[in-house]
UniProtKB/TrEMBL annotation:
CDD domains: AdoMet_MTases. This is Methyltransferase type 11 domain-containing protein. Residues 117-164 form the Methyltransferase type domain. The lineage of its organism: Bacteria, Pseudomonadati, Bacteroidota, Sphingobacteriia, Sphingobacteriales. One of its GO terms (molecular function) is S-adenosylmethionine-dependent methyltransferase activity.
Length: 248
């Protein structure tokens, strides 16, 4: 009944093709996320009522599927998908890409299918310069030592490859807010908006990526895909290997 009532022409989900006039609520109503204008974290209507896809998942499809066309032209590519979102993962799986690998450290806690491998982003079991594409969508904010994770992603990415490294990011804060001494879930929720978040990234996020050697391009394609119901404030962070020597 809800799907029938919500049917319309304002939005169309690229995963399930459901045409709707609105989305379901998602995100946190935390005061700190509102205060810091955290893009991709605040309470908002952004979840497809039919398949459950989120605005940030649809953004990845718009870029990887439409702008870069990895789904039809990625058969000779090696692709690593960290903490794979179900709808985006299904698109890559149905494309039968032989070099597609997906995984998470917590494979037993999220009801992943059996093909999702146990992969620790802090200790990737892949050789250097291995992947043409890495998808890491809203993962780094959960990692205590995100610098080590970024180094590992840099190590396994080919020089000509792309790493799409999305995080929730404050629109009005210059420097990332974090405190590694905090052990309480309640305190992390108060300061970072979610009990399993380790920080709120500021506009220095690109500096954190470039510090290990990445060259970062920041683009926004959301207005081009209004029908997908994307967050028009969310930029895509495209990291490639530059010529800079990585920092320790």
């Amino acid at each position: 009944m809800k799907l029938l009532w919500n049917t319309g022409s304002r939005f169309k989900c690229p995963f399930c093709n459901y045409s709707s006039r609105g989305h379901a609520l998602m995100g946190s109503n935390s005061a700190v996320l509102a205060e810091k204008e955290v893009i991709g974290g605040q309470r908002r209507r952004a979840r497809c009522l039919k398949c459950g896809s989120t605005d940030r998942e649809r953004l990845m499809f718009a870029y990887l599927g439409n702008e870069r066309d990895f789904l039809t032209k990625g058969h000779d590519k090696k692709i690593l998908h960290i903490a794979p979102e179900s709808n985006l993962n299904s698109k890559f799986r149905s494309a039968s890409l032989p070099g597609y690998v997906c995984g998470d450290k917590f494979t037993f806690g999220y009801n992943y299918p059996e093909y999702v491998k146990h992969i620790d982003i802090l200790d990737l079991s892949f050789p250097e310069n291995h992947f043409d594409l890495i998808i890491c969508n809203h993962v780094l904010e959960h990692i205590p030592d995100d610098n080590l994770a970024i180094k590992e992603l840099f190590r396994v990415l080919k020089p000509e490859g792309e790493a799409i490294l999305q995080v929730p990011i404050s629109a009005n804060t210059k420097y990332t807010v974090e405190d590694h001494t905090i052990m309480s879930d309640e305190k992390r929720k108060e300061l970072f908006g979610q009990e399993d978040h380790m920080r709120i990234y500021g506009q220095d996020y690109t500096d954190r990526l470039s510090h290990v050697g990445f060259k970062v391009t920041r683009v926004n394609i959301s207005k081009k895909y209004n029908l997908y119901g994307l967050n028009q404030q969310e930029d895509i962070f495209i990291a490639t290997k530059g010529s800079k020597t990585p920092n320790p």
